[in-house]
Amino acid sequence: MIKRMVGLGATAALLAFAMSPLCAQTVNAEHASRQWPTNAELLVMIQRAAHTLNYRGVFTYQYGNSMQSSRITHIYDGKDEREHLEVLDGKPREYLRLNDEVNALIPEIRTIVQERRQGDLFPGILLSDPKAIDVHYQIDVRPELGRVAGRSCRVIDVVPKDEHRYGYRLCADNETALLLRARTVSDDAHMVEQIAFTQLTINPKLTDTMLNASVSTDGWVTVEPTEKSIDLYSLGWRIPAPPGYVSTLQVARVFEDGKSVNQLVLSDGLATISIFIEPYLKERSEYKPRGAARNGSVNIYGVQVGNFWLTVLGEVPAGTLEQIARSVQYVPTAAAH
Amino acid sequence: MPVTTPVRKSNDPDDALGLSISAWMDGDENVAFPQNMLDSKGKQTWQVYHLIGDALRTPELAQVADNRFQERLARALDQEPVVMASVQWREQTQSDKRGSSRKPSVWQQYGWPSLAMAAAVAAVVWVARPFLLPETSGEQTAQVALSVPASAEAAIAPDYVAAHRQVAGPAAVRQVSFGGIK
After folding, report:
1. What is the mean pLDDT of each successive set of 10 residues along chain A, which is 337 residues long?
2. Does residue A122 contact residue B170 with C-beta atoms inside 8 Å?
3. pLDDT value at position A334?
4. 3-state SS string for A39-105
5. Cβ contact (<8 Å) for A298 and B161?
6. Which of residues 37-56 of A touch B (CB under 8 A)?
């Protein structure tokens, strides 16, 4: 009974605060304090906030029927960026970043993988060319405010201008422009995935230990990543890109099962398509999918091209993937010797 | 436990008498005292039901059936059609819509738990599924696979999807399952 009364008292106090003129003035002041451009500049502003603010929080990524939470601590001292990211679900992973250098900690094999960051991750936005974004997307700032992780945020619609990409609904912190939530919206207006802070402190009281690994890494092995840069064009591959998409990454990877694949990444600045190429071995029967399939928020199209197997996938409309998969060509004579 | 669980509603007055006596014996507060329990048929039903109940509760009162009876019973049960509770629940609600003043008793009690069960299963599916993708091996996956048939969706090209997600768009995040490091 006592607990119940305390709870009611707290609710009443909150209500009183919410209705007080002081609270209303604060919100209005925030409204007026920031201009929200209706073009790609807005995304640049969001990206800058991710790089230059100090924050600590937990965000959750939800795709298909799966979700994964991570705790992020980010510090910018005016010159260098330092970040500590801990994956909270499934296998423990930690990532310690100094600008573009990332140490990935894999506790179960006592290994540190030293890698270079390949573009921005949440709450940053991968932005290759802001001008290209304005060509292919319309950016609208909605009049109403949203609320994420207890903070009021500006709702932004990023609407595709053609059928080769999905749309996004973003919610950026009304005070600092930090991205609090990003939802990918499919061509039939369904949310296919979202990533959002569930708890966040901007300008928190940070201690150095928050930026350190939670486990001791004494005696761990340090290795380089297995990805190697390649040039698929010189290997004889002719891969057409849909309007607005450019190649941002070409690497040879090794999967956990030992399989080697080449990966080409196409991006229009927001949407991303991966094209995986591997030799087609008749004795292996696990080439899946053949044709169109879906894994959570990702559409997939698998097809055999000559003696190779192609897997084209991404959070983009299925028709676009099929078009790419069906028009890829391998020209052996063009391959560099 | 109801002594006789009615499996269907009907207009048979004997059935109605049996239902109301059974419900009243079970302490169903929605059922008024069945007046026709005072006549001879009602008294007989009342006594028979109590006899059955006593026999079920008291092994000494029950005759031990021989093995052949148990076999026959098992065979007969096998041949019984499966009665889906949700179908009965629908029938009940339809009869309510027709304006029946009869209080829903037995099927309402059985109908809701089955719906609740379905909701519970759905909740388990939703909660359990997230483990399928990030952890492609290990105990949790095995447990989930036992309770929920892994959908084809979860199994399609997980390595490729994980490799892609590391570099993908506004929702690009660190992936735990991906990597060529062993």
Report:
1. 38 39 42 80 92 95 84 94 91 90 91 82 77 90 94 94 92 96 86 92 88 92 86 90 89 85 90 92 81 89 93 94 92 67
2. yes
3. 63
4. CHHHHHHHHHHHHHCCEEEEEEEEECCEEEEEEEEEEECCCCEEEEEEECCCCCEEEEEECCEEEEE
5. yes
6. none
Distance (Å) of CA B14 to CA A65, A267, A297, B9: 52, 75, 59, 11
pLDDT tens for residues A250-280? 999 888 778 889 999 998 888 889 999 999 9
A66: nearest CB among B133, B163, B168 = B133
Place of tokens 């973003």: A170
Sign of CA dihedral B4, B7, B9, B13: negative
Burial (CB count <10 Å: 0-12, 13-18, 19+), residue B35:
exposed
Residues recorded for chain A: 337
Contact state of A302 with B157 under an 8 Å Cβ cutoff = yes
Within 8 A of A64 by CB-CB distance, chain B residues are 133, 153-154
B129 CB neighbours in chain A (<8 A) are: 65-66
Whether residue A324 contacts residue A240, with contact meaning beta carbons closer than 8 Å, is answered with yes
Q: Is B27 on the interface with A (CB under 8 A)?
A: no
The per-residue pLDDT for A21 is 41
Is residue B146 pLDDT above 80, yes or no?
A: no
| Amino acid letter, residue A168 | Y
Q: How far is A125 from chain B (nearest CA, A)?
A: 5
DSSP state of B104: P
Residue A249 phi/psi, 5° resolution?
A: -160, 135
A312 touches chain B (CB under 8 A): no
Confidence of residue B126 (pLDDT cuts 50, 70, 90): very low
Distance of CA B80 to the CA centre of its chain: 17
> What is the rounded CA–CA span in Å between residue A236 and residue A331?
5
Please judge whether A95 and B178 are an interchain contact, meaning their C-beta atoms are less than 8 angstroms apart.
Answer: no
> What's the one-letter identity of residue A155?
V
Distance CA(A263)–CA(A277), nearest Å, equals 6
- At A308, list the tokens: 């190779």
CB within 8 Å of B141: residues ≥ 6 apart: B131, B132, B135
pLDDT digits (tens, 9 = 90+) for B20-78: 887 777 777 677 777 777 888 888 888 888 888 777 777 666 666 666 777 787 777 77
Name A13's Cβ contacts closer than 8 Å, sequence gap at least 6: none
Q: What is the DSSP letter of B156?
A: S
